[in-house]
Amino acid sequence: MSHKTTRDQLFADFMSGRKDRRSFIRDAITLGASVTALGAFLEACGGGPEPAAAPPPTDAPPAPAPDPDDLGPIGTELNIYNWSDYIAEDTVALFEKETGIKVRYDTYESNEEMMAKLQVGAGGYDMVVPTGYIVTVLGAQGLLAPLKKKYLTNWGNVAPLFLDPAFDPGNEYAVPWQWGTTGIAYRSDKVNPPPDSWGIFLDPKWRRRMTQMDDVRDVIGSWLRYRGHSLNATDPALLDAAKADAIASKALLKAYISAPVKGQLVAGDVLVAQLWNGDTAQAAVEEPSIKYVVPKEGGSIWTDSLVIPKTAPNKRAAHEFMNFILRPDIAAGISNFTGYGTPNAAAMDKLESPVPYPDEEERKRLEYQKDLGAATDAWDQLWTDIKSA
Ligand code: N2P
After folding, report:
1. 180-299+379-388, what's its fold?
2. What residue ranges of the chain are covered by domains with CATH 3.40.190.10?
3. β-strands 308-309, 144-145: how paired?
4. What is the Å distance from ligand 1's center to 84 Cα?
5. What average pLDDT is seen over the chain?
6. Is the pTM of the predicted complex or chain greater than 0.85?
7. Which is nearest to 238 in space by CA: 214, 216, 220?
8. Which of 88, 140, 163, 245 would give a disulfide with 223, using CB separation of 3.0 to 4.6 Å?
């Protein structure tokens, strides 16, 4: 049967009521009708078949199939889930004003907290901000929507160092947001000599005035580096040694706490804290004696990225936000507030105190966190053991 005959039959069946609306739409799309044309036709029919309605024209060429890269209209809402203290105070307001999109903005304190929500499909988020190795995990679990690059007209501003990262080949899912390092924040007015080793977290002199982050990768990673190993190690013997160090240190720590430790550093309740460089810079704005060091044994370097969950209800608006923050002025505003490095090359000369890209020498001491694959469970168990010790 020719396409035309099939189509005539389909319309005839629908108009006579032999075919219901749902299967009519499905079959018409299979035959190449465009969604717009179908919508107009159905509207003209008044929502259902009417025996008296005129038959639709049948000699028009079949409409092209809907474009899979077309995300439709921009929408009116956007739900963002980001780390705390990780955006400028005016970024969201500027975006809302320019686009008319209303943003709901929630925050989290660790990749694990964010992933737990995403994996059970909670929150209704359109955009989350995982660290590199987590992009790999979420992508492999089929939880991310691929980027539609045609909406990212400002993509050219991304510095070459952040293109095609190992954690997301071809930037299939991720738009780089900020990059930074994990080291030690300390009160230089009280801690002398300044710390230069992860071993400070084993020094009883600072009992109950020290914290490490509430983060499985950063805590175990620091103890691995302390003993001269990769922070991506999976060898059970190395992990056991890291566990022993972590448990010895735990007896001296005030808490496992991440970004919210800033207030305690400023107040002087905490004098030494494992922390990221940017959050340390934020605390130093309030209390200039707060300084930052990457220990001699080395620490982690990471890039966090914007990604869109597969279940996101507002994917087009999410792309609009991505393109917005790829603008140099907006990107510079974000890094000026967060104290982290920008992956936006065009924003570099707009920064108040730009974090320079790490040079060769620094990169030797810094290591990217990688997906641990099958060893993830062992690490998680270790973390549970440490926390309950
Ligand atoms: C937000 C810092 C997040 C960096 N305060 C973690 N990669």
Report:
1. D-Maltodextrin-Binding Protein; domain 2 (3.40.190)
2. 77-174+307-356, 180-299+379-388
3. antiparallel
4. 7
5. 88
6. no
7. 220
8. 245
How far is the centre of ligand 1, averaged over its atoms, from the C-alpha of 278 (Å)? 8
What is the DSSP-derived secondary structure letter of residue 273? E
C-beta atoms surrounding 12 within 10 Å: 12
Band of pLDDT at residue 24, cut at 50, 70 and 90: very low
Q: Is the distance from the beta carbon of residue 84 to the nearest atom of ligand 1 less than 6 Å?
A: yes
Look at residue 16 in the predicted model and tell me its pLDDT. Answer: 53
How remote is the CA of residue 83 from the centroid of ligand 1, in Å? 6
108 CB within 6 A, ligand 1: no
Residue with tokens 């890094």: 335
- CATH class, 77-174+307-356 region: alpha beta
For residue 178, the CA-to-ligand 1 centroid distance in Å is 9
For residue 108, pLDDT over 50 is answered with: yes
Contact 297, 184 (CB under 8 A): no
Q: What is the DSSP string of 72-121?
A: -S--SEEEEEEETT-S-TTHHHHHHHHH--EEEEEEESSHHHHHHHHHTT
Residue type, 385: D
Ligand 1 atom at minimum distance from 279 CA: 5
Q: How far is residue 348's CA from residue 363's CA, in Å, rounded to a whole number?
A: 20
Residue minimizing CA distance to atom 3 of ligand 1: 83
Rounded to the nearest whole angstrom, what is the distance from the C-alpha of residue 129 to the centroid of ligand 1? Answer: 9
Atom of ligand 1 nearest to the CA of 85: 5
Give the ligand 1 atom nearest the CA of 282.
5
Distances (CA, A) of 295 to 30, 50, 179, 204: 61, 77, 18, 18
Q: For residue 272, which of 375, 187, 346 has the smallest C-alpha distance?
A: 187
Is 335:341 a contact under the CB 8 Å cutoff? yes
> What residues are paired with 305 via a beta bridge?
176
Residue 258 Cα to ligand 1 midpoint, Å, equals 9
First CA to last CA distance, the chain: 74
H/E element, 10: helix 3-16
